[in-house]
Design brief:
The complex is a heterotrimer of chains A (389), B (413) and C (286). By secondary structure, chain A is an all-alpha fold. Chain A has helices at 2-7, 24-57, 78-84, 89-124, 131-143, 146-156, 162-169, 184-188, 208-211, 217-245, 248-255, 260-271, 273-287, 292-297, 309-318, 323-348, 358-383. Chain A folds into two domains: 28-57, no CATH class; 81-373, MetI-like fold, CATH 1.10.3720. Chain B has 18 helices and 14 strands. Chain B starts with a helix and ends with a helix. The chains are: A mainly alpha (389), B alpha/beta (413), C mainly alpha (286).
Amino acid sequence: MSTDTTQVRVPSPAPATSRRGKGINSQTGAGWLFVAPTVLILGIFLFVPVLMAAWVSVSDWNGRGSPFGGTTNFVGGANYAEMLGGRGLPARDFGTSLRNNLYYVVLVVPLQTALALTLAFLVNKRSLKGKGFFRTAFYFPSVTSSVAITVLWLFLFSASGAVNGVLSTLSIQGPNWFQDPRGIIHLILGGGDAPDALSRPGFLGISPWEWMAGPSVAMCAFILMAIFTTSGTFMLLFLAALQSIGEETDEAAMVDGASTWQRFWHVTLPLLRPTLFTVITLGLIGTWQVFDQIYTGSQGGPSKTTLTPAFLSYTSAFESQRWGRGAAIAFILFAIIVVFTLVQRLVLGQADPTEPNRRQLKQDARSREKAASAALDPTVAVQGSKGVD
Amino acid sequence: MKNNQLRLGIAAVSAVTLAALTACSSGAAAPSGAASPSGDLSANTNPVSVLIGSSGDAETTAVQAGVAAWSKQSGVPAEVKVASDLTQQATQGFAGGKPDDVLYVSTDALAGWAENGSLEAYGDQLSNKADFYPGLVQAFTVDDKFYCAPKDFSTLALVINKSLWTDAGLTDNDVPKTWADLESVAKKLTKGKVKGLVVSNEVQRLGAFMAQNGGGLVTDGKATANSQQNIDALAFVKKMLTEGSAAFNSDVGAGWGGEALGKNLAAMVIEGNWITGAKKDYPNLDYTVAELPAGTKQGTLQYTNCWGIATDADNKEGAKSLVEFLTTKDQQLAFAKAFGVMPSVQSAADGYKADNAAMVPFINGAAYAQNLPAMEGASDVFGELNSKLAKLKGSDPKTILDGTQTDLEAIVG
Amino acid sequence: MARTSKAGAAGERQGYGWVINWAILFAIALVYIFPFLIQVANSFKSDTEATNAGLALWSNNWTQAAYTTLFANSNFGVWTMNSLIVTVLVTAGRVFFVSLAGYALARLHFPGRKVVFAMLIGVMAVPGVVLLIPKFLVIKQLGMYDTYFGMILPLLVDAAGVFIMKNFFESIPVAVEEAARIDGASTFRTFWSIVLPMARPALMTIIILSFQGSWNELNHFIVSTQSPELTTLTRGVASLASGQLSSGNQFPIKLAAATLMTIPVAVMFFVFQRRIMNSTGGAVKD
């Protein structure tokens, strides 16, 4: 090997990146060796399964033997058509699950983002004593298992549970949360019967009246649980962003006479845009896949109002033995998540229009944060606003 | 060019792993590689696993005792597992190639599992085949193959909490015989936290009312879900719910009728033979059983499960021997005593009546009991119907049943 | 002068605002903490008391019946052991594999590096729910269904962890490695003895996140196992909460189970909270 070194152009002008010196072979070898376990495991257990599921979703595999075996036939888009086009029970179940999950997403994502942002803002105030305590308190629920929290929630929201106890001190009769299938929009509209015009089956076999039902009372309990458990994580993201923005800009705006609201809306928020983007993207991806809580807590009830596509995919396969249907639902859900993430990118705009994909955006945001904090470093140290207490 | 390299690389990786996987799969595809030697029990000592969906501790203990007795006698180790979701666990076991050897199979589940070959049709090989009630054998025959041995059967009846009954000043003469009686008695019994009648919101209980009104979900092979008799039956239940003299289990915070009865939340419930399990959970409970009140006629629902044996079982001979043991007259009478179900063998009928005088209304119900439809896809239709029945108080029975009619027409015939 | 006077006024305003701010935050913090206090308190009450007086944090009849029944009537010990085995092995494995891959992507040049990078991104983009059924199929095909192997192997690598390590390694000055190279160390030696020890903070992050992730994992265990002997805490407690094994109002047992299963993660959290919260702020992981 030492002879090789002398033949290589040793005085290479770019030292940091091109170490084409001794050991390029060992670098290749070592490189592949090092990533081999990762590639293998991710490939086999994440990449290939997606391909296998794609096959199952266009086949009629019945659950026994291998999906590639002799008795399984190709059925084209039949499973997808059954979900999206038909009026039968499978399509209605899918429509119901989509409706439920849609309300869940539409309520959880904005609420948890707003709450996380508010908490981050309040906790970031320089004058706050006990920052560590607050950060811990708000982040703790995110650390616990979804199973443990669901069990706790089932207790708190039971008919005679703590939540109804608190409501009764305000003279409100709380509902039997997890057993109540009434949609809140229906309740707000007075809880009457469905008008005939809206009762005919519509999109995906669900009538417009049912589409308008809003999340059921039971689903609201789950919505509250989601906000409770994830606001802490996102609060930390916002906190990190706020701390890297630093106080300079805010103080400058204050000196210029801007009110608190103006400062927030026109100065801080635009600087937070990358983080906001990340938080909302993560929120969307997470809420569209809600499964653990439904599996542990309500299994889709009451009256299928907490049925979600992820759970429906699971039960179609693992209970009703309709593996093709279950796989088809999973892929449709995948498509929905991609669409929502793209729409969100369009709506929120991008920080830099020349960065086309999310990874680049995150890296960009991170490097901008690093640069910003480095620039502000001397002043930060003096003001002590980097809260390591 | 970089993009091409990228795509090529990804294609290569996926092709290689997919090829490897398919190669692996053809090896693992053949089900039940290790065939058990036929006839000779002593040669196959694989443990026999039994998956049950228990109605309570009483049933679990009784089944464990029966299985342990067989295990001692045959020398083959055996284990009872209690499922928290029987259908899901069994389906996953079948699909994963590692099913339990013996499992409870209900009439709804039979169709699907028989059709995809998960279950072994061993019924004709049973030595006590002739002793089973013909109706039960019929329930477990698919395509002329008798799949599995009926393990017991039950009917639904009215179960009355004696102490709440006498507290309301009612006597034996007041036991309701008609719907009108039921309504007035339930009103009298409803006070404070106690509801006169508490029932599950499932068609598996409310269907009894349909039977009592001369209706039924499927009649003579045709779907009749939205017949007037069914609509009127549900309207009657709805009336009692809105009047407040009846409630659903979930409304009172109970998991099943036995719990509602035992915790004195209900004066009357509609449950099956398994109500005896409530006595073990709630020792202070004292109840009487009466035949369900008649609408236009007497009607009730009948349930039966069988001992299914998986095609991919590790020890089929052991499983068959176990099933034969568990369906003998003595073993069935022991189960009857423990959790009240009725033996599926005709030779045990007299013994049952003698041992369980309090349970005679159940066995009388067998004379006019109806079965819920059991063709493939039926349990999904019931799931949908049950989710609508949960909202019965605020809905129109006709709308609900019209929906069920459409769903049933899709799978019947 | 205007500036100082404005600042002074701001200071006074901050005086008032300070108290209100703190009060609001404290109230919200109480709402966040209260449920856990209720959980622990009610796990020590009797069934009826928990149902009727769930809100009370104090009881006159403390009892540990729930805990004793939990251990007597369910396989809680087995569940805990399984969770421990899986978590320890997965964490150890992840630390090793993820740091190897992260180093390779950060510092080594080999053909196909871009492919691997793209694959990692792609994997992170696939939502977990799509993988529920297919993972079951693959595990079954490979013959590792219902084994420890099937539970642990798929979890041994995690794309986000690779990114964390990669980012960290990229921040280590190249000079250190160059020095090692010149001294004749092989790539692996350089990695193992020189660079890895410097990565301790990032490794701690990986350890903490892996511990938390695998201890709280549910849906992978649903699809990869079915035997009672292989049930972990998450699946076990979920079966307590629903299905035929749970009935009506036996809340103290369920709350006791939830409390016990939260203790290890909670302890880890309180010990390492600063690191967890600082790293979560910078590196996104859920």
